[in-house]
Amino acid sequence: MLIHATRAEFIGATMGVLSCFQTLFSNPNDDVPNLSPSVSAFREPPPGLVDYADNPSVFGDILSGRKPCRAYRESADLLAFRDRTPKARTHALVIPKRRVRSVYSLTPSDADLVEDMRRMGLEVLEDCEPMALAADDYILCFHIPPFYSVDHLHLHVLAPASEMSFLNRYGKFRCGMRWCITDLDVMERLREGLPAVPYKQLF
């Protein structure tokens, strides 16, 4: 069933705006474990026809080496790096190297991709936040358009969730709302042959 939730959309947009102001009052690099230097590097594309020049998003610039990032992990198909405006002590983004615009672009054949993204996210947590991982004190989620900032699929990996600000933990990154969904929910829906999210695309 497709769900309309205009009130939830308003709340999500409000939370997103408010959370942006928090970056003005925090130093996200305090006490960050395993923080790598920010470097620009060309990321070898996966086998097949993947041309980073066809990706106009900031993530395309990162993959092509035009913009730097603090990389956590890399595979043939994925890259994990630190969010430039982190909302948790460890806040990674896991992206596919091939351009997938958003969760709305996912099809049932992409279930394995989402599973691989989850696996890399958990590996980042194992490296950087093993205690939070063991305690299930983390969030893995996708934002649902139009409540996102980059037109390229990215999995948020945040830990420890218990140390996140109230607005971020229970607002911007609150899963089960119109603007945010867990990776497990996306995987389950795709494996059942359903759209990745139970909402109509607004734009």
General description of the model:
The chain is built from six helices and six strands; from the N terminus they run H-H-E-E-E-H-H-E-E-H-E-H. Helix 1 runs antiparallel to helix 5 and helix 3 (111-128) packs antiparallel against helix 6 (183-191). Mean pLDDT is 88; it is low at 1-5, 8-13 and 17-30. A six-stranded antiparallel β-sheet has the order 1-2-3-5-4-6. By secondary structure, it is α+β, with helices and mostly antiparallel strands. Strand 2 (78-82) and strand 3 (90-96) form a beta hairpin. The chain is globular, with a radius of gyration of 16 Å. The chain has helices at 6-22, 58-64, 111-128, 130-134, 166-172, 183-191; strands at residues 71-74, 78-82, 90-96, 139-143, 155-159, 180-182.
Features:
disordered N terminus, 6 helices, 203 residues, 14% strand, alpha+beta
